[in-house]
Amino acid sequence: MHSTSANLPDLQGQRILVTRPQHQATQQIQLLESCGAQALHLPALEIRPIAEEDSRYAALRSQIMNLDMYGIIICISPNAAHFAIDWIDQYWPQLPEGIQWYAIGHKTSQVLNDYDIPATYSTAGFDSEAMLTMPDLQGIKDKKILILRGTGGRNELADTLSARGAEVEYANLYDRTCPKYDDTHIKSTIYNFPLSSILITSGEALNNFVTVAQGSQQQFSTDSLHSICLVVPSERIAAQARQVGFSRITVAQGPDDLSMVTALNSANDSEADE
Fold first, then answer.
1. pTM of the predicted model, to two decimals?
2. Could you list the residue ranges forming a coiled coil in this record (predicted)?
3. Rounded CA gap, 119 and 61, in Å?
């Protein structure tokens, strides 16, 4: 972070909305504040592990206890990596051998690597499409694959791997839900004073943010938000944002905190050129 400080934007006087989940926002907020911004936090995703009393718990436990049955395991996100490690700690004092581990994105890979799980990631991007270009995931006919993720989300990865002849299962380690907020809190955070930029790191977070911003009775118009600079980590999410009305969109080099905040340099440059 320090070596790239010269590339960080000057955000003095700007109000930047951070939408990362509660437990993942600290570094992004600190980075924004170090640039002089006022960072406001309104999580657009709530992350909850599958509880022991949940009816899905037994099936999940069975998948974890039988990890050695899978030839390939793919971890979707840092959240999935952290929850997977907690499960593996319970049932595998030693990691089963012979599994090829993959992760979507460097950050997810790093979480697993720090736990001595040698996970490979695609350098071509931070999504399922990038992972599907990896040579090792082409000739996978009859391979048994486990995808570690949260409930819901996109099915592109599993559908394509299945089409290539693999037997694919999901291990849903946690739920992602849309948070609920008091309307007064929504109004004071989003509408009472103009926002300079909004940082969104996933398509689901974008959908949830729009839902939250409308208020509990959909009494707030989100039209005023569409002209605010929106920073997203991929062209796919940018296209999704355009569909819901956003017109000033900057695509960061990735979903990590430094890339998202550094992208505000480009956003500021674009604004200056108008």
1. 0.87
2. none
3. 22
